[in-house]
Design goal:
The protein is 47% helix and 15% strand. The protein is an alpha/beta fold and 365 residues long. Keywords: Ion channel, Ion transport, Membrane, Transmembrane, Transmembrane helix, Transport.
Length: 365
Amino acid sequence: MKRPFRFASQLRADAELGDVPVHTLTDVITIPRSAHTTPWVLMARRFGYAILLVIAVAGLVYFDRGAYSEPLTFIDALYYSAVSLSTTGYGDIVPVTQGARLMNIFLITPARVAFLMLLVGTTLSVLTEDSRKTLEIQQWRQTVRDHTIVIGYGTKGRSATDALLAGGAAPGSIVVVDADPVNLAQAEKRGLVTVHGDGTKSDILRIAGVTRARSVVVAPSSDDTAVLVTLSVREIAPSAMIVASVRESENQHLLMQSGADSVVVSAETTGRLLGLATVTPPVVEMMEDLLSPDEGFAVAERPIADDEVGANPRHLADIVLGVVRSGELYRIDSPEAETVEPGDRLLYVRLTKPTDAHDASKHAE
């Protein structure tokens, strides 16, 4: 019991940075975008547009080349276009006919404004990149609700994210917290919101919106880190559901005492699968099938239909594994699961192949 108290004292010593100015978080939070354009690409693109505009105006001037103070070659027309659109205006070439002056008023003047907007707009876009990111982060922090935070984006964190996405979670509703920039880059490519920092720190958890999160997946690489993260999350977000991973079974009780709602023992589970693989390999293949969300079979949860109330779940069309009633899971062989009651939810084996899309939609809420 001494270890959790030591963790709690460390939590109290953390600085509270959840309310820091948003502009200081541009290097911490990354909001994924559908298309990422670097400032250099943006400048090159707009510079190309400006060149095309200069050439187009030069073509108009050359088409009416006899209406100016001197006969114009195409080079002269290009020169006149450049000095006019850039507002330099040396005055050595001027329109002298009424038609040329009207063209300057109604065509070249708007083109001059567009030319300046391209150049100024490019500069502003580059200079205001941080401002844009600040606005995106501010909007995200104001609207984020009921999201899932994955702390640690190693093998376990990535697998948990795969299961969330396969279960229908939107990428924008998943926030990854990790201190490794490589892991965060991988998460960002998948459209996930990322927070760079240590998941044991209360300020990082607040930045990730833990007080508004629906659930938190604790998947660090070490058990002591998992305990500290769980303590931090439970202290800040008493109502969040915490699912934690621990390598050794003897540390499972520490996670439960720290506030985890569910604990998965990775080393023990892997050992059991290895033992089964030596005796009954098909059982392991079926377990892997059930744990793979994108192919074959998967364990899913659904609400009961109106015509299923009062029925025995063993006699339903689906292969039912258990009944969830008031947040409590009852296995199919328990007396409480003899009859389906209103408001119950069923854990069942679902076929994830595309041919079963109709069956999946039938049970959708």
